[in-house]
Amino acid sequence: MNAATETTPIERNAELPTWFGVGGRADALARPASVEAVADLVRTHEHIRVLGDGANLLVDDEGVDGLVLSLEHLNSAEFLEDSTVRVGAGVKLPALILESIRRGFAGLEGFAGIPATLGGAIAMNAGGAWGQIADVIRAVRVVDHEGGIHTTARDEIGFGYRRSGLVGSIIVSADLALKPGDPSALRDRLKEVMAYKKNTQPMADRSAGCVFKNPVVAGERVSAGALIDHSGCKGLRVGSAHVSELHANFILIDPGGTARDAIELMDAVEQRVRDAQGITLEREVVIWRRGR
User: Fold this and answer.
1) Burial class (CB in 10 A: 0-12, 13-18, 19+), 220
2) Nearby residues of 139 by Cβ (< 8 Å), 6 or more positions away
3) Do 146 and 169 belong to one domain?
4) Which CATH number fits the domain that encloses residue 236?
5) Alpha-carbon span 23 to 213, nearest angstrom
6) Which long-range contacts (CB under 8 A, 24 or more apart) does 268-274 make?
7) 84 and 178: one domain?
8) Rg (alpha carbons) of the chain, rounded to whole number
């Protein structure tokens, strides 16, 4: 038994909670309690996947191999006097937004309604109409593929649309550069953002948010949801999965459904948009399969 196994228990055939509520299990799952424990596991395991809040993830029904790391124990948040917040990767973004508002720290309220841990939000540079998470990053601490621990400044990361320049590294914490704000005004702003999303997105249903990235067409980024809608995909169904009637870039899965139905539906939507619009969509939802 190696040292990492002694300090961080490995769960076998472990459930992987996702917002879709379907999919298989993990052959192995670890919940490291510190950054050093994450580094130890990286040094002793070849194939590692990182589980955030499961909000942008679809796990194949056959489950996944390798070692899955849940960073749920890296959940500290330190609010500093200069409006910097030092946050662990396992902190859930909605809870962080509420606490920031309560303390009068402005800058996160536009991310209301995004279900993610901070680490997951940074990894995919989550965002929407009110900005992207890269806008508030000061520095990110990571564990690299060899188990080294490094801190990288915002300008050195290379953020882009729905991506970061941290591929291959495990995000363990970040410093966020926020601003002083009035808690009452920030709460009002939060309510405005949430009201808009509730009216335009199926937030109460079993989904993982937007399935496809907004593509660039003729030099401009256009709505994937509009492309899907105009291709006649609203309501399209494969087995237990269907395209939302409220927002075409959301796929919903019936209780007791399967990940395979959702994957086949994504394939069908991509084909319809390609046939109707001549545009190839890129998936925003991450799919975990064995051997990949």
Assistant:
1) exposed
2) 151, 152, 153, 154, 174, 175
3) yes
4) 3.90.78.10
5) 22
6) 268/233, 268/236, 268/238, 269/211, 269/212, 269/228, 269/231, 269/233, 269/236, 269/243, 270/212, 272/228, 272/231, 272/232, 272/233, 272/236, 273/227, 273/228, 273/231, 273/233
7) yes
8) 19
Which among 70, 88, 115 is the end of a domain? 70
Residues in the chain: 292
Residue-wise pLDDT for 115-167, tens only, equals 899 999 999 999 888 889 999 999 999 999 999 999 999 999 999 999 998 98
pLDDT at 129: 80
Neighbours of 159 (CB within 10 A): 20
Question: In terms of domains, do 35 and 92 share one?
Answer: no
The residue among 199, 231, 250 that closes a domain is: 199
pLDDT band at 84 (very low <50, low <70, confident <90, very high): very high
Which residue in this structure is represented by tokens 């920031």?
100
Amino acid at site 264: E
Number of H helices, E strands in the chain: 7, 20
d(Cα 264, Cα 165) in Å, to the nearest integer? 30
- 228 and 267 within one domain: yes
Instruction: Give the CA distances from residue 148 to residues 41, 164, 168, in Å, rounded to whole numbers and listed in that order.
Output: 11, 19, 12
State both tokens at 60: 């194949």
List the domain range (segments joined by +) for residue 112: 77-199
